[in-house]
Amino acid sequence: MTNNVINLKKKIKDFKTEGIKFSVSGREILPYYDIIDFLKIYYPFINLKQIESSFGSTYIPSDLYGGRKYNPEKSFTDGHIAKLAENNINLSLTLTNHYFSPDIYEKSKYLLEKYHKAGNSVICVNDELAKQIRIDFPKYQLRASIIKNINTLKKVEENLEIYDFIVIPMDKNDDDEFLKSLPEKKKIMLFANASCAYSCPTRTCYKGFSEVNRGGDQVNLCSRNKVDRLNMGLVFFDVLKFRDMGFDYFKLVPLKQYKTNDVIKFYSEKRLKQKINFNEKNMFYLCSFPKSGRTWLRFILANYINLYFKTDEKINLNNMFEFIPNNIYGGQKGFARFRYYNRPEIPLILSTHEKYNPNIFSEKRIIFLKRNPLDTIVSYYFHIKNDPGYRGNISEFIRDKKFGIRYLKRYYKLWEKNLNNESLIISYEDMIDDIESVIINVLNFINIQVDNEILKESINNSDINNMRNSENLVKIPDMNESAVRVRKGKTNNYMNYLSEEDIKYCNDILDVKLHKLLEK
Question: What is the DSSP letter of 173?
């Protein structure tokens, strides 16, 4: 066996050799990172034009993910994927779960359909899954994962009958005779660098991640403390030598350096601040107390903007934040996810539950969404009960100083004092009674022309059944799994949950009517 590990500093130019292409891991991506900044900073030793694809998971969940424990926070957003495509970089889905069943496959069809286009690929461990994808989604290129441990000539030949590309395990990078013997080297991918998997004799964690991602207990754990191995850290291989053998395609894992994330965040924030300043002339705030019907309103507006401006998306409860984000920077909901800073005709609508703050909202154009306070407080109770976990009953909740009806009243009073004639006040009850009129008012306020056909289609796409179906496929980011965002969609539903005594208590607190906001 030959040791083909090299010193990157001495051979860094080799990685930029013309004709060498890479598929790079996106495992460290975060929703608010600029994907191109991410690639340049995590892979500084290659040129951007050498990156053929980036592999990882997306914000759309699937029991078929493997290789790592699925984390939507460290997954590609549609904004990331669109930016990759703009730079001629394809998406490679890591559907490397060991386990396959027709039910699991059926649930993952939404994911497969969404990214099914020429150039994109799927990495598989399970051959049954690969064969089914070949039939149903023929545009995907199929890649056999390193996890399959294709480490003999016979295995290579067998897998070439199923897959378009085969990834050879990292430890075989040191077996020159084996590498030279491989047929169809243009269909073989080697790892150009490696971390713990290179020296791990068992790789049991891969199956363990499959167990977790399909919803089970992790039985197969990392063997680091059980089996002796040489801990070499992140190593790099002699890609020029491999190129001379006939190999052109390589995979890369990220080079994480000191404060790498801080550097990406700095550049991403700087870039974003410039974009926000550019959009200030077409910026609005959507303000409401929690559980006032904001999700429904946002879903309709995202659908309308998508259709009117022909952005060609299928709106769900996750990617709607790429159209109407929250008024925070990071995470999966923040304004770093807004995709259309380069299209000033598309308004930036920042959504928030914040109480009135003159430093933020003074002289800004505000859409304020109100709702019957008793319905609001009941819905808020069920929201808080699930996430983060309020322990009291509903009667205790409405009397709670932190969450209850007094808190709601303070919130509304502060906003009532500071809304002006240039603000647009709408109500959930009006949305229930005449949703078209409400949306027309909002569209006029945000300076988007009303198209009646698009309006009807947007409302139809956003009915409660469609939203529930969306929630079953793709949940709102950062939500507790037991929490449900789309609940009843009714008015005066509080009477089913509050006693007469509770209702009297709330009405006594609310007896000083706020003429704009607390009218029922």
Answer: G
Q: At what angle do helices 500-509 and 405-418 cross, to 10 degrees?
A: 30
In the three-class reduction of DSSP (H, G, I as helix; E, B as strand; rest coil), residue 96 is classed as: coil
Q: How far apart (Å, rounded) are the C-alpha atoms in residues 496 and 498?
A: 6
Sorted by sequence, the CB contacts under 8 Å of residue 313 that are 6+ apart come out as 78, 306, 319, 322
Q: Read out DSSP for 383-412?
A: HHHHTT---S-HHHHHT-TTTSHHHHHHHH
Candidates 338, 344, 341; CA nearest to 326 is 338
**Cα separation values, 399 from 17, 393, 415, 502, 509, Å:** 69, 10, 22, 9, 10
pLDDT mean by block of 10 residues, the chain; 520 residues:
87 95 95 91 95 96 92 93 96 95 93 96 97 98 96 97 96 95 97 82 70 72 59 87 97 84 80 71 92 95 97 92 92 90 91 95 94 94 77 92 92 92 93 97 97 97 85 72 51 90 93 56
DSSP one-letter code for 337? G
> Hey, what are 166's tokens?
């085969």
Which pLDDT score is estimated for 344? 87
Whether 211 contacts 204, CB under 8 Å = no
- Token code pair at residue 295: 């999700």
| Edge-to-edge strand list for the sheet holding 283-288 | 348-352, 283-288, 366-370, 424-427
- Compute the distance between CA of residue 296 and CA of residue 229 in angstroms, rounded to an integer: 54
Alpha-carbon distance values, 485 to 49, 123, 341, 488, 494 (Å)? 42, 33, 28, 10, 17
Q: Which value, to the nearest 10 degrees, does the dihedral of the CA atoms of residues 121, 126, 127, 133 take?
A: -40
Beta-carbon contacts of 178 under 8 Å, excluding residues fewer than 6 positions away, are: 151, 153, 172
Q: How much is the pLDDT for 219?
A: 58
Rg (CA), the chain: 27
Contact in structure between 480 and 388 (CB atoms under 8 Å): yes
Beta bridge partners of 25: 55
Look at residue 484 in the predicted model and tell me its pLDDT.
47
Whether 105 and 76 have beta carbons less than 8 Å apart is answered as no
- pLDDT reported for residue 482: 42
Q: Which of 121, 142, 31, 47 is nearest to 83 (CA)?
A: 31
Give the span between the Cα atoms of 487 and 508, in whole angstroms. Answer: 27
pLDDT of residue 467: 87
What 3-state DSSP class applies to 197?
helix
CB of 24 within 8 A of CB of 191? no
Q: Pick from 298, 315, 323, 337: which is nearest to 485 by CA?
A: 298
Give DSSP secondary structure letters for 246-291: T--EEEE-----TTHHHHHHHHHHHHHHHHHHHTGGGEEEEEE-TT
